[in-house]
Every structure is written in C-alpha cells, then in structure tokens.
Write a structure and sequence with these properties.
The structure is a single chain. The protein is an alpha/beta fold. The chain has a domain at 2-176 and 206-238 and 274-291 and 325-331: 3-Layer(aba) Sandwich (Rossmann fold), CATH 3.40.50. It is 38% helix and 22% strand. It contains 13 helices and 14 strands. The strands form four sheets. The chain has a seven-stranded parallel beta sheet, sandwiched between helices. A three-stranded mixed beta sheet has the order 8-10-12. A two-stranded parallel ribbon has the order 6-14. Helix 1 (13-22) links the parallel strand 1 and strand 2 (26-31). The N and C termini lie far apart (47 Å).
C-alpha cells in the first residue's frame, strides 16, 4: 500500500513510519519540519521512502495522486499548544484537516485515517463515555478535532473511507520524546527531583495509551477490511488504563525509588475529565490489542530519563516541549505568526 503520513517527524510519526515500512508499505512523509532538532540525543528516526517538506495547509490533491491511503497526524498537538491562538488552532487542526481529507478524496485516495482525540469528550463526569456520547470539547484543540471529524464523516462515500481514531492521552518513549504529556512529565520530574509533581488536584479521569500502541492501531486501521472501518469513529485505548491523574501519580511514585507525590503551588481542578469505554475498538479492529500497560510504560520512561540524565531545566525546556519550542522559533524569526516556516537570512 502507498501511504502518506503527515507529521511523520513527530512523536507518533517517528514510530509509525518504520512500523509501516516493516509491514511492507511504501511511505510518503509530509512534514513542515517545525520540530527538527527535537529528537532524543543520538536518535535518528527512520525516514520514509519519500520525504516532502510541506505545510499541510499547502497540500493539494496533486500531491496525493496515486496514493492508497493517508494518515493525518500533523497539527497543533495538545491543549496548551492549541490555546496559544484559538483561531490558528481551528485553521490548522480543523479546517486544514478537513480540506486535506477533501483533497485526498479528490485524488482518489481510498482510506483516510485521522488521529483525533478522546479530549473531545471534555467534561465527561464520573460515568463512562463512548462513541455515542455527544462531544463536549472544552478547549480549542478539542473543538477543532471535533469539527474536523464532522467534516470527514460527511465526505464518506463508495470510494472514500475516513476512519476517525479518538486516541487516549499519549505517553511513552519515542525518538521524538515529549515531556509536555502528563505521564511523561510526571516520570521526568520524579526521576530528576524525587517529587511526582501534580499540576492539578488530580481528581480528573484520563485514559492513557502508549505511543507504540498508537502506531500499531493506525497500522491495523489502514489494513482492516473496508466494511469494518468505513466511516467509523473509534476510541483507541485500554479500559484498564483509565486512571485518575492522582492514581497515575501514585503509580509513578511506586516505580521510582524514593519518589513522593506533591501538589505544585497553585494546583487547581481541571475540568477536562473523561473515563472512556474502548469496547467498540475490539469489535472494529479485532487485530489490535494494546501491548503496553501503564506500569510497564512508566518503568520504560524512567529508564530512558535516567539514561538521558536531564536536569529539570532541560526536560521542561524547548527541546522536549512543543509550546516553548514554537515560541522560541517565533522569537528567532524562524516561523511567522501563523507558524509557517520562513527563511532566516544567514550572516554574510
């Protein structure tokens, strides 16, 4: 299968591209390169068969001609980043994602796998939400994802099958490791300081999924029979990995000798809370099963952070956190206000 992966240089894409190539697929990677230089020291993520440096807002049907499928990962990839400029978040994560799906359909692409998010459920309460629960997004990031989903469903037809994967909260080791994800941040802080620092009261529910399991789920969704996935919206995660953030903090403390849980100064309740059912996942993608437990993933993260030997200033700095990195690029004049890369004049 000939597959385009947008955002292939990112946290998930760095694992997905080599996985797809091992499974015999040919991969076109499309990425604007905003996060070049953010890989782990010494890590060289495996590249695609063909690499196109392009902003997704500039990608058209001609660029997608001859492809069998598109996996759309690119975008502003969490709530803090989405809050930077809500209108820009809607432009990139919402309207540009919908336009890309329309271009794929025009180009004759038959399958479009969209990396959406369980955060569309917003304030889910104490009960369990599923794919029939109306979205209640609380942030620009979640609202843009929900908007893109709706546009993609409307494009479904005989020759075009969108598959909308609502992922649980990502965590785990990748060559493009991030510490602006809750589990990764808790582990890094505990490893460096001995304190599992909660930045909220920890009462909110949050499902988790390891980044390697995300890549596997995408591969399975690409290869599944059309009738199984055509137009499907599927929560992707593990019922056993629905945790309150405070319980996640306790799990991190248990995995790291001498670590204790502390509330950060000013920690406040977080309205974003959703306990998610993943029952549909087993029916729609029976070939997929999450391989990573939270305990195993936390232990693996701890080993990686120990090996890196990072002080707090480094793991909370621009290299491993998307929002500070983009703000740094803006300040240096390397990206415009709309986050399009721009050339920087070199000294004579």
């Amino acid at each position: 299968m000939k597959v385009c992966v947008t955002g292939h240089r990112g946290y998930v894409g760095a694992l997905l591209v080599p996985l797809l190539r091992r499974r015999g697929h040919r991969v076109l990677g499309v990425d604007s390169g905003l996060f070049d230089g953010c890989a782990l020291p010494g890590a060289v993520p495996e590249g695609p068969d063909r690499d196109l440096r392009r902003d997704i807002r500039d990608l058209g049907a001609d660029d997608l001609a001859g492809l069998d499928a598109v996996v759309h990962l690119a975008g502003l990839s969490n709530d803090p980043l989405g809050d930077l400029d809500p209108a820009l978040t809607d432009e990139i994560n919402g309207r540009a994602a919908a336009a890309l799906a329309a271009s794929a359909r025009k180009a004759g692409v038959r399958r479009f796998v969209f990396a959406s998010t369980c955060s569309v459920y917003g304030a889910g309460g104490e009960g369990t939400v599923d794919e029939e629960t109306p979205p209640r997004p609380l942030t620009p990031y979640a609202a843009a994802k929900a908007s893109a989903e709706a546009a993609m469903r409307a494009l479904a037809g005989d020759g075009f099958s969108p598959v909308l994967l609502r992922f649980a909260t990502a965590y785990g080791v990748s060559p493009m490791l991030r510490f602006d994800l809750v589990a990764n941040n808790l582990v890094a802080h505990a490893t460096a300081t001995g304190r599992v620092l909660l930045k909220s009261t920890g009462r909110q529910w949050r499902p988790l999924i390891h980044v390697a399991d995300m890549a596997e789920a995408i591969a399975v969704a690409l290869e599944a029979p059309r009738d199984a996935v055509h137009g499907a919206t599927v929560n992707v995660g593990d019922d056993d990995a629905n945790l309150r953030i405070a319980d996640l903090a306790d799990a991190v403390a248990a995995a790291i000798p001498g670590a204790c849980v502390e509330l950060a100064p000013g920690a406040a309740p977080d309205r974003r809370s959703y306990r998610v059912s993943f029952a549909r996942l087993g029916r729609v993608l029976p070939a997929f099963r999450p391989r990573w437990t939270v305990a195993r993933g936390v232990a693996d993260l701890h080993r990686a952070v120990v090996a890196l030997g990072l002080p707090v200033a480094d793991f909370e700095g621009a290299r491993f956190n998307r929002l500070p990195h983009l703000l740094q690029l803006r300040a240096a004049g390397r990206v415009a206000a709309d986050l399009r890369p721009r050339a920087v004049a070199r000294p004579a």
